[in-house]
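Minutes, project check-in

Agenda point 3 was the complex the collaborators sent over. CS summarized: four entities, 304 residues total, and the question is how they sit relative to each other. Sequences were read into the notes so everyone works from the same version.
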Amino acid sequence: MAADAVVPRLDEQLCFALHAASRAVTGLYRPLLDDLGLTYPQYLVMLSLWEHGDRGVKELGQALCVDSGTLSPLLKRLEKAGLVRRERRGDDERSVRVTLTEEGDRLRAKAVSLPGVVGEAMGLGPAQIDELRTTLHQLTDSVNRYRANLDG
Amino acid sequence: MAADAVVPRLDEQLCFALHAASRAVTGLYRPLLDDLGLTYPQYLVMLSLWEHGDRGVKELGQALCVDSGTLSPLLKRLEKAGLVRRERRGDDERSVRVTLTEEGDRLRAKAVSLPGVVGEAMGLGPAQIDELRTTLHQLTDSVNRYRANLDG
DNA sequence: GGCTATTTAGTTGCGCACAACTTAATCGCT
DNA sequence: AGCGATTAAGTTGTGCGCAACTAAATAGCC
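CS then shared the predicted structure for the full assembly.
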């Protein structure tokens, strides 16, 4: 086999396209989220809380695909910022309930404009966006199933 | 407007689908790259070097969309691992040339199998992959143009 | 030639992602 | 009831991403 054909070019690699796109979008959010005093991963946590009002650390971890090693310090920062409260659950002292504070709830109103701005910046039509999201979910599921089989 | 319709659900957000997919794929690469002693971002640098043999730090930064703040320590680790050499360029002492060592070049052969494994795990057909890559490039370009206009 | 502005790498500091580990509570089995 | 296994959250350490800054070399202008 030809040695120079063995490894694909960087910009042909789907993994890099994904990596680059994800970072570009996060970078687009950054200045917008700065106004709310949030980082992008913190914003994802707030989205989940705005949606459900009340979440356990484990639930948040499953929804966002992160473990407690990432979540614990992040939630501590959100708590210090006054957006969130953490309390041990009464019926199971192991688990922790994360709740929105008044201020955390109010922040939702300031986040309203974000999806619109980001959606516009992406420059894709509704059909393209829909298909992209579907394909990405499919890819993520497939990859995660594959990963689960590696150590399972 | 209805308050509960204001901010989309987490799993409807394209940005999160992107974020999750990118991390899933990186996580899939991790155990494979462990065998080569590389992290994923280091692998991207090696891909660029395998492709061009020889790159300036600035060129690498442009190709991978990262600045010297990320690249410098990463290259230092690759150098310490014996995969790469760094030397000031003669004609312009500001810039640094990054070169593959023998060992770095040999590593290419061990990376041959990666794209196949990852491609299979993604569970997408060739047409889907092609379209996904195109859409992602389009999205990245559009977002980065938008970002350039924010501070430009 | 001399001086400022720009360019290029590198450093520092913070937050996230993740692996490996710790601590504490609960579960489940006998 | 007692006790080992499991589960939940948190801690520690490493590497990446990025902003802000520094140091040194070159470019460009007078």
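Noted in discussion: Chain B has a mean pLDDT of 94.
Follow-up: revisit at the next meeting once the mutant set is ready.
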